[in-house]
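Possible regression after last week's pipeline update?

I re-ran a chain I had predicted before the update to compare outputs. Posting the input and the new output here so someone can diff against the archived version. Not blocking, just want to make sure nothing changed silently.
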Amino acid sequence: MATITASSVSAPSMALAAFPEVRHDHLRGSGCPRNLTNIAIAIHGDKRRMTRICNDEGSAETTSMVVFVLLFPGYFFYQCAVAFGWFPAVLGGYFGIISAGLLPLLVVAFARLVLIKPRAFGMVDALFAFIVILNCLVSGLSYIVTYWDYRNEVFLQSASGVLFVVTCYMLARTLAIDKSQVKKVLWVSFVAMVLTVGLSSEDGVFNLRSVSGDDALGTYQGISRSVVATALMVICLAEKRLETVLAFVLAVVVLFLAGARSEFVQYLAATLLLAVVVSWRRLATSMVMLGVFSVSVLAVAVLGEKVLELVPQTRILELLDLGSATSYLEREILLSNAIETIVKYPFLGSYGSYYHTVGKGGYAHNLLSAWVDFGLIGFVSYVVILLVMAGKVFVGLVADRLTSNESRLAFVFFVFSTIAFAFSKDYSYMFSGFAVGFVSRYEVLRRKALKRSGK
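New output (post-update):
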């Protein structure tokens, strides 16, 4: 350890006193500011150790980016390669195997970038941890004490849900969203997906199962999930308004061709609401957005079928007549079953009971599914974390009007996931992990900013 006199460390000590986050938060990768690194070295007296910390954090951020690309754009391209006969189907459904295989690397990255940091967690993280533990305890105990023929399927479904949500949470906490390399990778991946859909659609419909005749391939929901995750990242991190508009339009076209109605509606709602909030003080922009939306609605209302004949006949058009949509009617039945179960078991719920009547996938496609599986305490836990996140997001609206990358990501993934919980997805929906992670990340960032300003 180097010997430092009092006079030689007085200036660095004062600097660190003014910026206490320096030694933890700004020493990242090869981009560590030299003057701040030297200050930390003067205090700690170990140049090798500080260099190693910088390099470790840089490699951890790279690991996180690689995991995201492999899971979301990677899922899309793997399913396409299998459907087109370019690659054998050796990875099954892909997402589960890849998530489990990459989890150790992501945990290490999470430990290096988040766990070792001071004040890295808040109320949102505590609630999230409680929900994850509750999921694990209930599913694990149910597997041990029950002897259903399908208990393996129920447990695997629960374990997969926890794995996917936790993976998305750790990605949201560790992605280096401010680095230009990350933005370039996201843009390249997104454009490649857009081109693939545009060049591979048949009669304006992108359906990999019809291309290959293999029903084991990824569904339109899985394909759309990859597109949405990448598109939302691109939109929130875009530095120019033209990039934002281009990404928004391209994603709308791709989701329309893919035919995933829930993802299409949730994406439109989240991104349009983001645009309104960000530009609400720009009268011209707001008027243009309102005008385009009004003209579109008016055209469909007046011209009706003539307009619809001009667009590809995908499942998205069923949104205009939900009453005749088979899946909508089926979900109404599942909702009714869930309410009956809740009335019968209001406090403890009845974990996996839908398997008795409907089978796999027979859960309510909304947050009532948490009440069915985990009882009242489970449902209340999800409602509470959503309310807490809503408060954090509202603070972001008031504090910086979504001018930072963190606040925009927190807002858009929170809105997207909340709508999903309300109308289309069960409690294990993986994008809720993104929402929790980005809201928590923004909360930590804002807390540091307030401390720096002395408030």
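Follow-up from reviewer: compared with the archived run. Confidence is low (pLDDT under 50) at residues 1-47, 49-54. Marking as no regression found.
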